[in-house]
Specification:
The complex is a heterodimer of chains A (218) and B (248). Chain A is mainly α. Helix content of chain A is 82%, strand content 0%. Chain A is built from 8 helices and no strands. Chain B is an alpha/beta fold and 248 residues long. Chain B has a domain at 1-78 and 193-248: Rossmann fold (3-Layer(aba) Sandwich), CATH 3.40.50. Chain B has helices at residues 46-53, 78-82, 100-110, 116-129, 145-157, 175-190, 202-208, 236-247, and strands at residues 6-17, 20-31, 35-39, 61-66, 69-70, 85-88, 163-167, 195-198, 211-216, 219-224. A 6-stranded mixed β-sheet of chain B has the order 6-7-8-3-9-10, sandwiched between helices. A 4-stranded antiparallel β-sheet of chain B has the order 2-1-4-5, with helices on one face. In chain B, a hairpin with a 2-residue loop joins strand 1 and strand 2 (20-31). Chain B starts with 5 loop residues before the first strand and ends with a helix. The A-B interface holds A 115, 117-118, 120-128, 131, 135-136, 139-140, 143, 216-218 and B 54, 56, 79-87, 89, 91, 93-97, 106-107, 110-111, 138-142, 152, 155-156, 159.
Chain lengths: 218, 248
């Protein structure tokens, strides 16, 4: 069989479906990862003692366990206690836990880097602590976190392939099925790899533009 | 005792950090339109005193009253009182991600609940008052120290405070930039603003103060009108201190 014809007529259409699923996994994970990550970071820096411990436990737990293990528990383990998740939902949940734990570390570092005086000034104006965090601290901390968050996003693009281990047919899974059926491992995974590389490249360019756009002048 | 034009009353404020007593039983009353200037060596509790007034530092003992209402032990209402007590910091503490005008607007929007255009108008008015309207769209990093401090004064003024606290407003500035900031503060005094000022600028202190308070070791050691400095025997220690300044 002609390789080019195989790639165009068979491989790419099959991978397209997988790519859509991969993009779906990323799209559902990333926003919640940042959102929860920011919440956990704020909890660790500004929370009461119990909140601080809770936030720290969250980060330690999800940073410290293999993501694959987490997915296995969420998909294969939870049904035994009566919680059945679809493969897609189980994967997204696992990714959110992992992504947010790492995101929170970047955001926490950025929060710490903002001069204490701005917090004091916000309070002196009569703002509540939550207002200072929301309107003064986080807008600056999130900007400073962009390089780190993009790093995590890039990891997410690639580790989203782990969803295949809990039966989600995403990009890698779709590739695996084609490769096995037609015995075309090299061609298939080379193309799959290029697709990931393309996604990462687009992300990097987009991140660069975003960083420039939100940079604080001066 | 308390007269009708008393704005701020401070009674027996005390604060220790560990075993260091930073404030010991400090009391005074501030009348409307009055300018009190606190002078004295560094580390004698002047900044701590200002921060205890708006509860940025919670005092160990003593009470603060604004218009007769207790600010200490105010609980959640503390934000309400802080909004009425303007504060200007040594390091300006502008919000780095906001333009000058947004710095002035933000508390109007979030604390006072003003509408956008109302807040914008008020912020422009205050920037004009400190001569900074032409820099309204500049970010803090694009401003000189003197300009940044003038914006921070506008930010505090925008809240229409009953009293303004200045914590060494020119200490972080190059000598040639202090003048523009002191001029703004002088203007406020002329306009009848009630102010507490901590400063090391002796000439400025002498010229602007209605009352000069000399602090040392956490207490008000001597106090009186600047005019009494040369003549009153009670100003012995203050004269020594200011004399040292004159020598420099």
């Amino acid at each position: 069989m002609d390789q080019t014809a195989f790639i165009i007529n068979t491989l790419l259409p099959a991978l397209w479906g997988g790519l859509v699923v991969t993009l779906g996994l990323i799209a559902f994970t990333a926003p919640f990862g940042v959102l929860i990550g920011a919440g956990v970071a704020v909890g660790r820096v500004y929370g009461s003692r119990p909140v601080q411990y809770l936030a720290r436990a969250y980060v330690t737990f999800f940073k410290g366990t293999p993501l694959l293990l987490l997915l296995f528990i969420l998909y294969f383990g939870l049904p035994s206690i009566g919680i059945s998740l679809s493969p897609f939902v189980a994967s997204v949940l696992g990714f959110i836990f992992c992504n947010s734990a790492y995101d929170s570390e970047y955001i926490r570092g950025s929060i710490r880097s903002i001069k204490e005086g701005q917090f004091t000034a916000g309070l002196a104006l009569g703002m509540a602590r939550t207002q200072v965090i929301r309107y003064v601290i986080l807008p600056q901390a999130l900007r400073r976190s962009i390089p780190g968050l993009v790093n995590e996003f890039v990891y997410l693009i690639k580790y989203s392939s782990l969803a295949y281990m809990v039966t989600v047919v995403e990009l890698t899974g779709a590739g695996k099925m084609i490769a096995t059926r037609y015995f075309t491992y090299n061609e298939t995974f080379l193309v799959v790899g290029l697709v990931y590389l393309f996604l990462v490249t687009i992300t990097t360019i987009g991140a660069h533009l975003l960083e420039r756009r939100v940079a604080i002048p001066g | 005792m308390t007269t009708d034009d008393t704005i701020l009353r401070v009674e027996g404020l005390a604060k220790s950090f560990g075993t260091t007593e930073v404030l010991k039983e400090v009391s005074f009353t501030v009348r409307k339109g009055e300018t009190k200037v606190f002078i004295g060596p560094s580390g004698t509790g002047k900044s701590t005193l200002l921060r205890c007034i708006n509860q940025l530092i919670v005092p160990d003992a003593g009470r603060v009253y604004l218009h007769g209402e207790e600010v200490t032990h105010a609980g959640a209402r503390i934000n309400h009182y802080r909004a009425k007590i303007g504060m200007v910091f040594q390091n300006f503490n502008l919000f780095d991600h906001l333009t000058a005008i947004r710095n002035v607007e933000i508390a109007l929007l979030k604390v006072k609940g003003m509408k956008e255009d109302e807040a914008r108008e008020k912020a422009l008015f205050e920037l004009r008052r400190v001569g900074m309207e032409d820099r309204a769209d500049h970010y803090p990093a694009q401003l000189s120290g003197g300009q940044a401090q003038r914006v921070s004064i506008a930010r505090a003024l925008a809240m229409d405070p009953d009293v303004m606290l200045f914590d060494e407003p020119t200490s972080a500035l190059d000598p040639e930039l202090t003048g523009e900031v002191l001029e703004v503060i002088r203007g406020l005094a002329r306009a009848g603003m009630t102010m507490l000022i901590v400063t090391h600028e002796m000439r400025f202190a002498l010229s602007i103060a209605d009352e000069l308070l000399f602090m040392e070791h956490g207490t008000i050691l001597e106090r009186g009108a600047p005019g009494d400095l040369a003549t009153s025997p009670t100003f012995e220690r203050t004269r020594q201190f200011t004399g040292r300044f004159a020598d420099l």
